[in-house]
Amino acid sequence: MEQEFFTLTGGGPLSVYVKDGKVVRVRPMQVPEEEYKPWTIEAGGKKYSPPRALRISPYTHAERNRLESKNRILYPMKRVDFDPKGERNPQNRGKSGYVRISWDEALDIVAGEFKRVIETYGNSALSGITSSHHNWGIVGYKMGPFHRFMNMLHYTPVLDNPDSWEGWHWGSTHTYGFHWRLGMPPQFDLLEDGLQNTEMIVFWSNDPDSTRGTYSGQESAIWRVWLKEKGIKTVFIDPFYNYTNASMDGTWLPVRPGGDTALAMAIAYVWITEGLYDKKYIEEKTHGFDEFKAYILGEVDDKFPKTPEWAEKESGIPARKIVALAREWASKRTSVSCGSRGGEGSACRTAYGTEWARMMVLLMAMQGLGKPGINIWGTTMGAPADHSIWFPAYAEPRGQMGRSPIAKQTLALQNKTKQRLFRLTLPDAILNGTEDFWGDGFCGKTLEQQFIHNTYPMPGESKVKLFYRYGGSFMGTMSDTNKWVKMYQSPELEFVVMQDCWYGSESIFPDVILPACTGLERPDIGEWAACGGYTTNAHIGNNYRVIVREQKALEPMGESKSDYEILSLIAERLGMKEEFTEGNTEDDWARKFYEFSDLAKTLSWEDFNKKGYHIIPCPDMKDYKRAPGLRWFAEGRPDDTADTGNPRRNTDRADQLGTYTGKIEFASESLRQNMPDDQERPVVPHWIPSWEGYKTGPYDKYPLQIIMPHPRFSFHTHYDNHCSWLNQIPLHRVKKDGYYWWPARIHPEDAAARGVKDGDIVELYNDRASVLCIAELTYRVPKGVLHSYGCTARYDPLEPGTPGSTDKGGCVNLLTSSRMVSKHAPGMTPNSCLCELRKWRG
Asked: What's the whole-model pTM score?
């Protein structure tokens, strides 16, 4: 007889059916129809309500296949030529194989290495990092056990870079604030506002049907159907004719990679010279417009006006189309959709992507940002929801929200080590023995965090000797990733341990591998799509608020264990188990989190635990208090949205933005006062040609510009390479000669000039790397542009463990430069990459 369990993933909630100890099927979580209380939005004489069902991400349907993947790590493993008491042979990481060992031996080695390194070098010689978006849950997700354990040992953290919204984080925060949201704008109640008031949407570097609002599954897909049915005009500015454009049949402007800022400035030029902007809004709500205007008109600095004719040369968009777009944009209530959560998109992950992100805010300010129908809206968030019930999210174990039940314990385990490393420059730090970078990772506390200058090693601290990798892969997501191969093989890293559920791109490098179980094999708790921290109230990307008691559906496969149990066992060998666990099991922590939430005031733990889920109904729309994002600012009122992270709420500045002036800053005062001489992120946004792009850098040698957006059928690297079902999707991988190849999309004329036909195995190469893909000839990319998703989880070099060896797994990030967005803005730039392509004859 089948037994149903409930669980939660990064792509949505599931019903998991188990028979005889084996998962036989998974489905989107099944809920009786009467439990749904759908909202209704009235617009244009029609009523819009979501279906009484939950729509998960496509890859989440393969959760059973992923559970039973041939790439599951089932047993502790040790590198064959690694001897913790003898020869370690770091130069063979990536080359030598592994042998199965017992848990006792694995734990003894790992705990022993922790003790040795601490005694020899000090606690700052310990370091480690998790990957993006591992298994879901408050208790067992990366920000829970891993950070608690490593903070307990006072390690050197590796700070994350926001690899999805670089330019917004490092740029737009200096234009309209929202540093507490890392530069991404609030999306509250923008679905109703869009349906009722918006007349045109410009999708700029955004493909929401593919990226889906990050965690929210396919909940918002129906919204864009409504927008199309309602007749709202859509324009897509993207080098790739993306999937949302195909479904909405919008106007396509195939901007040349790196030319987005020029295009935006030309639109501003038309508005200024033709008077097509909201002068009253500019006067009352903004700061520094005259400085900006002088730059756009060519009166200062570089002294050339940013005309449509100039922008045509830089962006590839004909001047007449730029003028037509600018005029129509200004004639309609227009929203710009710059990324799935309002502020992402590939254009911000380019050289000087800060300037494009700032321009998006400034263009909207010129049209009255926050007024009805005029907003920055990703079309994937903004559903009505009951915000009065607070439930903790996965960032809670760090105490980021200040309401965590273990906030006091987190403070008690506060990391005393001040030394920091940065994910993008980590290989350089290890290989060179020294490194410096700007910023404090995710700078969500203050704008001034971005101006911190970090050096490694800090005086009095040690260089890193022990490295702990947890979950996922960086070979397919970071920049110039051959450096990671070199880093792992460096003798500076005396011990490398990896903890994961699946063998992936980096699993050929550690000295010891610890097998973690999946979310189906351990208990937890969480809310669908709720992150907490810098993305409060992300449940508005869903049609319903869904809280799930993640139930253990089956025993861990092989000898795998939960992340919490693994770290508890290591802590026990270090004599610190009580400090780490405080005597709590995973179920104990889940109950503590639940009972601290507002939900516990109306529903007992016993009832919730027995049922396995709860749907928080949206208030009746007659009583629903609407608070569209930034409407308060446009109308000069205190912030009335559910953006509880806003530090100016309930103060005498509650009607202001988080910039220094409280206004939208065309001339940034935070940059003027903290870094006034920065020529690459100037006070007023500037057009700065890419250091590697169209007719710049090694363009004569490598004339193809490759863009690497986030993938359609995996989430970063998760699900790829350990879900055989996904390999059957030809848009994801294509089988040829028994191997599943990563597609690279090329214009037919570019292919013909290189003697390449559709389905040929081709080599993409530049001075940094060589990668094999399968050619897909398509008119969905313009001439001179390649498109290949940047998140393969398969790193498969022809010569394993050899830096620079040709990779056939499609790891196109190997080709990218490790150069940052700009000198003081340490973001990644995978979409500023030149390469060449030829038919592979190996």
From this structure: 0.97
